[in-house]
Amino acid sequence: MNPEDLDALAEYSSPVIRGSEAVITITRPDLESNSYLSQLFALSGESSRRLTHNWRDYAPEVRTNWSGYLSAAKKESGQLFVGSSLETAHRITDNHLGVSEFALDDDGARALYVARVAETGRYGQDEDVPASEEAPRRITSAAYLSNGLGYTNNRPARAFLVDLVEPGLGKSGIAGGAEVPLSTLLETPESDVHDPQFSPSGTRVSVVSSLAPDHGEPDLRSTVWLLGGERPEALTLPRMSVNLHRWIDEETLLLIGNELTRDELDFVGQMPGLFVHDLTAGSTRRLTDPETVSVASIRPQIAGTGHGTGHGSGVRGDAPVIAVVDTDGASRIISIELAAENRTLDELDFLTDETAVVNGIDVDGDSLVWTGDTPTNPAVLHRVRLSADGTKATGTGGDITATDAGSTTTDDGAVRAHPAPANSVLPQLLRVDGEGGPITGWLAKPSGPGPFPVILNIHGGPFAQYTHGWFDETQILTSAGYAVVYANPRGSGGRTRTWGTAVQGDMAAPAMADVLAVLDHALAGDAELDSSSLGVQGGSYGGYLTAMITADDHRFQAAIVERGYLDPDSFVGTSDIGRFFTEEYTTRDAQAIARQSPLAHASQVRTPSLVMHSELDFRCPLEQAQQYYAALQRAGVDTELLIFPGENHELSRAGQPRHRRQRFEAMLDWWDQHLGGDVDANLDDEATSAIR
């Protein structure tokens, strides 16, 4: 894969079963327009149909009477489109800052959606008042910034209701017209709201928001709020942070969230769990084990139900929950009974294999579809046939199949697989004994004979993980002639809470020992790896660990420190998570912070280092890179600072396509200068054009 091959990638997401069809969102980076294209497609039998034709269509929802999705013109914010079908949906909102989420009440013919409401005169509402001339911002809260957004307090996220009435003879819904149905702004909590939902009958309207207003003290607690009454009503839950919720019936909610065990800031290593809340009894029960099971933030489903008139229609009392859990290197679909309690990872029924990385699911009757990626494909759509008890049925036959180019129909339920770019390789799984237990890692080698320069790549988080899934960064490096070693050290997600908290108060040493152990294992076990030509790189926490490694271990010929957490002290006052992240991970002790600070150790670095950062990064602010770059210069280190304008912390994943390409080009140029890989590798060679 070359940097210009970004155009060949695609992401499949938000699957929805619609009769015999599977509807998915296909998103593609477009270098020419420097933006992302996404449309809705329906797969059925041997056919594939494009359902929508706007620049960016995504997040479909299908009900019996109404269907909707979000749609945006080129480089604009999304608006809500709803109609009797996805094909006939028309625009029903015109919110200045766009719509972020929505839910449909099928029988009640209503939509509940979330949109930000800008303070008068801000964010382009008045063409005569540019951003630089807006009034000063008065801030009294602990959290007032959000990466990828900016200031939040003067544009809070609020909930709206809108009736779904066909436009008839009026102008509402006519393309090019300005008229949309009138939306009603609901009274909501003071803090931002998200995750709008209707109960099955439509009589209850709910969102998730902070438990208490932010008046200057950080507090991670959140709960479900019932809207539509005289005032918002918060459900009384255990001390926790709720990510998503789903109505099972009128008195029962399914929740995904983190318990905050010690206090309202105890987030480190917390394993998101699946909970059932009974509104009548006021009780909350955890279905999954808090030590071994980490539930992904993907809305759970109930097996054996159809879309019907609402999310919870026709739920049997014994119907199991279908959810996604993060395991070591994967995100896998599980089936779990509603009556379960603290079920451990070993006690779960898995519906996908141990290498699948699932990003979306939908269930209708005995059919389940999922989207995500696999070791060999950057995007896939799969189908699983369910038995009556919610476990995987024998055989995968059914109507949702495809056999055209780039598609497969196999016994494992594959419906469609987006082809990987030329010269992609299949990484080798490594299991390495470490000080804290076995470490999962991977070795990806270029096609052809060695010896190969080796790059140690380190993920962010730290409570995140690398997966078995196809990864563009690995493929870019291997195509250029570099072998890549990467791992999930202590502090990573996907294992246990104990594994995740292993770096609390000591952010560098345990993870450093683990990633170096995997590197040494790979070097000792493969003669094609050149141990005299080593590089190390990482982003966010990976940038942090890269900087700490080069201060201590001088065997690397070069390093790339990207969007790094580099000065815990200044991070407290500048990052959007600064008021709790640093103190929970590095403690408040000045000496302990100094021991864990890359900036404090910069004078020990001897390794040539490229420092890459984004100008609008509010997670790890630009000043982190600026301070570290200046310290390296002061220490006489060969260093460069590369700043991407207009980008935030998500550059490598969701940045402007041209910047993503330029980022890859800068990486390859740096490694070519210092390691001399085969940057002219022939990507058109048919012998190496498929994954091996």
Secondary-structure blueprint:
Layout: E1 11-18, E2 21-30, E3 35-44, E4 47-50, E5 56-62, E6 67-72, E7 79-83, E8 90-91, E9 99-105, E10 110-116, E11 145-146, E12 150-151, E13 157-163, E14 183-185, E15 193-198, E16 205-210, E17 222-227, E18 233-234, E19 240-249, E20 252-259, E21 273-278, E22 283-286, E23 294-295, E24 301-302, E25 321-327, E26 330-336, E27 349-350, E28 357-364, E29 367-373, E30 379-385, E31 414-418, E32 428-434, E33 437-444, E34 452-458, H1 472-479, E35 483-488, H2 497-500, H3 509-525, E36 529-539, H4 541-552, E37 558-562, H5 568-574, H6 581-586, H7 590-595, H8 598-601, E38 609-614, H9 622-634, E39 639-644, H10 651-654, H11 657-674
In whole angstroms, the N-to-C terminal distance is: 14 Å
Q: Give the overall shape, derived from the CA principal axes.
A: globular
- Percent of residues in beta strands: 25-35%
Structural class: alpha+beta
- Taking all Cα atoms into account, the compactness measure Rg is 25 Å
Question: Could you tell me the mean pLDDT?
Answer: 92
As a percent range, the share of helical residues equals 10-25%
Report the count of strand segments. Answer: 39
By DSSP (H or I, 4+ residues per run), the number of helices equals: 11
Extract low-pLDDT stretches. 308-314, 396-411, 679-692
Q: Strand order across the biggest sheet?
A: 32-33-35-34-36-37-38-39
Please describe the biggest sheet, giving its number of strands, its sense, and whether it closes into a barrel. Answer: 8 strands, mixed
